[in-house]
Amino acid sequence: MNEKQRLESQQVQAQDSTDKKSGKDYSKYFEAVYMPPSLKEAKKRGKEEVAYHNDFGIPEELLGMGKGRKFYIRTYGCQMNEHDTEVLAGIFMQLGFEPTDSKETADVILLNTCAIRENAEDKVFGELGHLKPLKKERPDLLIGVCGCMSQEESVVNRILQKHHFVDMIFGTHNIHRLPQILNEAYLSKEMVVEVWSKEGDVIENLPRVRKGNIKGWVNIMYGCDKFCTYCIVPYTRGKERSRRPEEIIQEVRHLAAQGYQEITLLGQNVNAYGKDFPDMEYGLGHLMDELRKIDIPRIRFTTSHPRDFDDYLIEVLAKGGNLLDHIHLPVQSGSSEVLKLMARKYSREHYLELVRKIKEAMPNASLTTDIIVGFPNETEEQFEETLSLYREVEFDSAYTFIYSPREGTPAAKMEDNIPMEVKKERLQRLNSVVNEISAKKLKEYEGKIVEVLVEGESKNNPEVLAGYTSKSKLVNFRAPKSAIGKIVKVKVVKAKTWTLDGEMVEETVEVK
């Protein structure tokens, strides 16, 4: 749904949603402001042209809304959610709100949610339970749920039925309407629900409040059209739509001028970047080739889909410079049969051929991945194929998960005959291999000098600094606080399973 469709939909009577528990009739209210999510609508992918809006602005009558008020945002999930939170914070501050780290002092609390796995939803509903007494103490407090969970019908229905104290629910596509949603919540005595299920717009010029000035995220595209059978993201994030390259290049140049040391390009499937442009042949490889000329030390991207990872992108990445050769390349399973059930649209052989091409072009490239174990009806032999693929590729590390059914996805309807104890045992075996190879890879760093982007103090010891290498290896070492925000050379003295300990050998690295 775009802005025009939203206005049209407001003229259509919404479904009757009566609060059965209280017997109160909300239908009249819902006719005006209730816009529920629909997975059926979310799956529809039209070929309508993506609309660009460069005219974002706060309506004049709402500019003073936040005066004397504070906001608190709790973020769950991926970097995309973190990026959305930066935008939400930017809008709040343009409205006059001030940020706070305390829920107790906040006038508005937003939970920016993730829908990838069931336990992510459990955390959010647990947090809502903790917020209920706070709302009772302070009735004027506004509580909102936004992000990916808000795009799910079942989640919105659960909130409507069991969490009446929530004031706002809005989705991933209409973050830019936060001023209007807040205004509606302040004026209304009932819950404000606005979730767009179909999306074809790109909103530029949104304000952002970034965390620090060392590492920055730049969204290059939105949505996903892959529809893997286990994944809710294409429903919650909408169809694939790319930002124009000139907008991205300008944003990266601006961040470089501000002194940022590392940029991560974000997208649900960054390798599909540009495929929706109707007027030119332009992909991620072309974008990276232009960004490598900008004076910023490090540029990386996430997340990749193996099917869309083309030869030209490999050719450009092989040029090196500020383009990092650490690639996150989710495989999900080492079995072609399971990959087919997952609708990943590539085979084990295709994946291994892609890895071969990457390593041939970039011999020192490091690969990380995502793997799901216990997908419906996965056999022992198929799981063994995953173990053998992991050993063959020798990933530096992996995010590993037990399959979590998401309501509304095709996989949730599949018969699952694998006992949970078997799934847990497989995950344990996989993690043993992951840990073994990770330790082996890190051991190779001992005695070597690496360049580390220093992010700050170690979480465990304020006297120790911590930062990441270009291959995303966490290094802890002692150094003066003046090194924070700089790239320094560190000699690795000890390798652990997941981190490295080192000694700084010189203060800074000059980046050419």
UniProtKB/TrEMBL annotation:
EC class name: transferase
Binding site for [4Fe-4S] cluster 1: C78, C114, C148
SMART domains registered for this protein in UniProt: Elp3
Catalytic activity: N(6)-dimethylallyladenosine(37) in tRNA + (sulfur carrier)-SH + AH2 + 2 S-adenosyl-L-methionine = 2-methylsulfanyl-N(6)-dimethylallyladenosine(37) in tRNA + (sulfur carrier)-H + 5'-deoxyadenosine + L-methionine + A + S-adenosyl-L-homocysteine + 2 H(+)
Matching SUPFAM superfamilies: Radical SAM enzymes
UniProt GO MF annotations: tRNA-2-methylthio-N(6)-dimethylallyladenosine(37) synthase activity
Keywords per UniProt: 4Fe-4S, Cytoplasm, Iron, Iron-sulfur, Metal-binding, S-adenosyl-L-methionine, Transferase, tRNA processing
Cofactor(s) named in the record: [4Fe-4S] cluster
Annotated Pfam families: Radical_SAM, TRAM, UPF0004
EC number: 2.8.4.3
Residues of the TRAM domain: 443-506
Localization, UniProt: Cytoplasm
Co-factor remark: Binds 2 [4Fe-4S] clusters. One cluster is coordinated with 3 cysteines and an exchangeable S-adenosyl-L-methionine.
Principal cellular location given in the protein's record: cytoplasm
Record flagged with keyword Iron: yes
Annotated segments matching region Disordered: 1-23
Domain MTTase N-terminal residue range list: 69-187
Residues at which [4Fe-4S] cluster 2 binds: C224, C228, C231
Domain Radical SAM core span(s) in chain numbering: 210-440
Superkingdom to which the source organism belongs: Bacteria
Complex formation: Monomer.
Family annotation (PANTHER family): CDK5 REGULATORY SUBUNIT-ASSOCIATED PROTEIN 1, MITOCHONDRIAL TRNA METHYLTHIOTRANSFERASE CDK5RAP1
Entry function: Catalyzes the methylthiolation of N6-(dimethylallyl)adenosine (i(6)A), leading to the formation of 2-methylthio-N6-(dimethylallyl)adenosine (ms(2)i(6)A) at position 37 in tRNAs that read codons beginning with uridine.
Family stated for the protein in its record: Belongs to the methylthiotransferase family. MiaB subfamily.
Protein name according to UniProt: tRNA-2-methylthio-N(6)-dimethylallyladenosine synthase
Organism: Bacillus salitolerans
Taxonomic path: Bacteria, Bacillati, Bacillota, Bacilli, Bacillales
